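DM from R.C. (forwarded with permission)

"hey, sorry to bug you on a friday — could you get me a structure for this? deadline for the figure draft is monday and I only need the backbone to look sensible"
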Amino acid sequence: MSAQTLTDTVVADLVADATAAPSMHNAQPWLFRYTRGDRTLALRADFERAMPAADPTTRALHVGCGAALLNLRVSAAHHGLAAATTLLPDPSDPAFLAAVRLDDGPDATRDRADEALRALHPAIADRHTSRYPFDEQPIPDEVRARLVSAARAEGADLAFLVPPHLETVLDLIRDAEGYDRGDPAREAEQEHWTRYTKTDAPVDGIPDYAFGPRDASERATNRDFTGTGAPAGRARVLFERRPQLALLSTADDRPADWLRAGQALERVLLTATLDSVSTSFATQPVEWPDLRWVLRDPVHGTGNPQMIIRMGYGPTGPLTPRRRLDRVLTIEP
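My reply, with the result:
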């Protein structure tokens, strides 16, 4: 792609793909600024969409923005562009999360890496969070290996949980869900990002059609977005008896690591989507400091837990709303 064909329309396509990424409560806490003169996209945090009760350090906000950054890189590769990415380029400006210079063509070494990213592009439109039951079919070892490799490609570790560690983590998820319901500030924050489509025309947040059913056994790992005010008539069904959970972690726990975790998360999710594996999240214990560290495997665990991913075979989940591009993208000379 030549400089003449890097049009504003192409830039808009890149950002549209970026904003398909998941984020906590679908808050979409990102802004993009493109400068034509140096062909650079700046990714900035929208701290007005932060969640001080559930995410006081903005760790989850950074993870969501990192996921958007990975989508941007995938889209750039799809358009034949090399995306030279710098994380946290300005220490004096904490909202400036990444600078992405869009070059015309990758060299031979980068071309191999970009080809792997390019292959993920079809999954961007198909990846949706599924809060529905999965069946009991195990994910094959070769698929698990691809998912582990996807995380490693972005500098993170992915470990599938096995007993008894799995049972410990399931208990922590349920404990954290109870903590959330007992915390008025967190409950109010979650309610703020919940959308009921009979009265709202949502552009962000979690719409009611994406809540999923309740687990009849009360053992589901999904966050219950109805909180303490569950509507009457909501379906109750049985979920899988032993969820297939994977823990994503990083060696360190600074803002740059959170951005790397987000990129690794999205690379895992897109890879899973191409393998017809549905995904959702169980982030509740990661959001409580006293529970987060217990998530690690007591025998072999290292690193800093960043995300718990539920995987399996079942419904892919619905498309959730996204903000208009003119609300998140600014183009400058």
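R.C.: lifesaver. The CA atoms of residues 131 and 212 lie 5 Å apart.
me: no worries. DSSP finds ten helices and 13 strands in the chain.
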